[in-house]
UniProtKB/TrEMBL annotation:
The keyword Kinase does not apply. Belongs to the CDP-alcohol phosphatidyltransferase class-I family. It comes from the Bacteria. It comes from Actinopolyspora alba. This is CDP-diacylglycerol--glycerol-3-phosphate 3-phosphatidyltransferase.
Length: 224
């Protein structure tokens, strides 16, 4: 469900007074100002920054020395901190707009970094990685469009959560079966299954998000 800046559901964006284009730009500026005014130095944000700092390390481990075990540990660390920063934000009441941006950004960067490394190493076909990366890029470009028309980003769909969950399990398993893993005959079918399920759900969720964006923009223009 897409909501406007006041919490109303899709279709309630208003264009009263002033030119629509000026209002849209003002909304984007207001959101940007809110990000800068929010508290940055919180414990959850520090964990998110640590996750982001691990992305280039993770990519170097995969493509440089190809130390897959250490890369796997970085990926596990990312998963633990991803869970922990959300818990700490609730326990310490340290919610911030910065944290809401950093957390999904780290998830997306790990997914993109893993896909790029896997394509270079021949683990996954380039067209599959391109489809998943293009999905994220397209949805990222939709965010300023929603802000321009006075809407919040779409709520995270359960299919999106399930897709990310599957991919985050698939990537470590795919890493394990690349080397001389003792039980690779057990891990391999699970790796391929999680990869297939995750990719399909990831694209499906992307189409649902895109449909919400088109619906919000169409209704905003009809009411403008």
């Amino acid at each position: 469900m897409v909501q406007d800046a006041d919490g109303a559901t899709t279709g309630s964006a208003r264009n009263s007074g002033g030119q629509p284009s000026e209002q849209g730009i003002d909304r984007i500026r207001e959101v940007a100002a809110g990000v800068w005014s929010d508290p940055w130095w919180t414990v959850p944000n520090a964990l998110s920054l640590l996750r982001l700092a691990g992305v280039p390390v993770f990519l170097w481990l995969l493509l440089g020395p190809q130390w897959d075990l250490f890369a796997l540990l970085v990926l596990v660390f990312s998963g633990v901190t991803d869970w922990l920063d959300g818990k700490l934000a609730r326990w310490l009441d340290q919610y911030s707009r910065v944290g809401q941006l950093l957390d999904p950004a780290a998830d997306r960067l790990y997914i993109v970094a893993t896909l790029v490394a896997f394509v270079i190493r021949g683990v996954v076909p380039w067209w599959a990685a391109f489809a998943l990366i293009a999905r994220d890029l397209l949805l990222t470009l939709c965010l300023p469009v929603l802000r321009y028309h006075g809407f919040e980003p779409p709520d995270v769909h359960y299919l999106g959560k399930a897709a990310t969950f599957c991919l985050m399990y698939a990537f470590p398993l795919l890493l394990l079966v690349q080397g001389d893993f003792a039980f690779d005959w057990i891990a391999r079918p699970f790796a391929y299954a999680f990869t297939g399920w995750g990719a399909a759900l990831y694209l499906w969720a992307g189409l649902l998000y895109l449909g919400q964006v088109f619906g919000a923009v169409r209704l905003a223009r009809a009411r403008g």
